[in-house]
C-alpha cells in the first residue's frame, strides 16, 4: 500500500533539511574556528559609528562644503589638481599608481601621466586610500581619538584636520612652484575669499565675519573625509555573527593569516597597529633619492588592509603589484627574514617580521573579504571656482 502523498512530501522535506544541515556543518566548523582565532587575536569588525573631535562635529552643510573643496582644483598652485585627482572613488579613493602624480598631471588612475615638459617629481610615497581613514588609530579595544589619529606613512601629522592641509603645501602633490611651502595654504585661503559662493558657504557653516580660514578649510575637508567609510565587508558581517559571510577558503585564510603572524601588526578593526616598522622594502626606481622613512630609520606605518582589491600597488614605495607578491616578499626568507633594500641590513628588520607565510592562496582569499563596494562615490556637478571638477583628470 502506497503512503499518502503528504507523507512522501514530509519525507522529502526532511531529506532536504538533512542535506542543508550537512552543508552548513561542512562550513560552520571552519567558520567557528576562524571566529575564535580572529577574536582571540585582536581582530574585530569596524564600529558603525564614526568618531568625531569635539571641535569639529559633522553637519550636512559642512560635509557638502568639504565635498566641493575636495573636488576643486583651486586648492592647487597650478589649478590643475584636486584632492580627488589622487583620491578618486573609481580607485577606492586611492589612485592605482605606484607613486602619485599630482601637479602637472593629466588623466585618472593608471592612465595618469605628467604633462611635458615637466619639472615636478613623482610623489614620494604610494597613495593610501581615504576609505575608513576616519578610524585611523583605532585599537583592538575599539577606542579611537580623532584628535590624535596618526596620518601618513611616517605619522608626521595627527588628525584629519591637520593632515588635509599638508598636501596643499607639498611641492609634488598640490603646491607646484607657484607658492612657497610657507605661503601655500594662506595663498589658497585668499583665493577662496575672492569667490562669492565660497564666502556664502563658509559663512553658513562657520559664521562670523571672516569664516574662510586655514583652520576652517581643514575642518571642512576632514568632515567630508569622515563620511568615506566602508564598514559592511564580508569580514565585518562575519565578525558580527553572520557565519555564512565568509567562504570556507576565506575562513581557512583567516586562520592562516593569524598563524603566520600577520595579525601581530595588522590587528584591530582596521587591521593595523598604527605603529612604525622596518621591513626593508625596496626603493622605487622613480625616486632620485632613497626614501628613508621616519627620521631616517626606514620605518613606515602599518597600512590598513581594508579594500586592498582596489588600492594596488602595495607597500610605501608601491613596488609590489599584487597581493601574491606581498606575501612572497614576507615569505622570501622561509624562516630568516631578508631585506629587499640594500640600505637596510637584515639585522635592522622589525622583530615582528613574519618568518613563514603558509597557505598563501587562502590568505589572499581572506583579504578579499575585507573589500566593500558600498561607499560614497558621488561627484559634484560643478565646483564654486568654475574650474574642471577634479582637476585635469580627463
What does it look like?
It is globular, with a radius of gyration of 24 Å. The protein has 394 residues and is mainly α. Residues 5-28 have low confidence and may be disordered. It contains twelve helices and six strands. A hairpin with a 5-residue loop joins β3 (150-151) and β4. It is 33% helix and 4% strand. The strands form three sheets. Strands 1-2 form a two-stranded antiparallel ribbon. A two-stranded antiparallel sheet has the order 3-4. The chain folds into two domains: 38-48 and 231-368, Cytochrome c-like domain (Cytochrome Bc1 Complex, Chain D, domain 2), CATH 1.10.760.10; 60-225, Cytochrome Bc1 Complex, Chain D, domain 2, CATH 1.10.760.
SSE order and pairing:
Blueprint: H1 5-40, H2 60-71, H3 83-86, E1 105-106, E2 113-114, E3 150-151, E4 157-158, H4 160-163, H5 171-175, H6 184-193, H7 196-206, H8 214-225, H9 234-239, H10 248-259, E5 276-278, E6 299-301, H11 323-331, H12 360-368
Antiparallel strand pairs: 1-2, 3-4, 5-6
Helix pairs in contact: 1-10, 2-8, 10-12
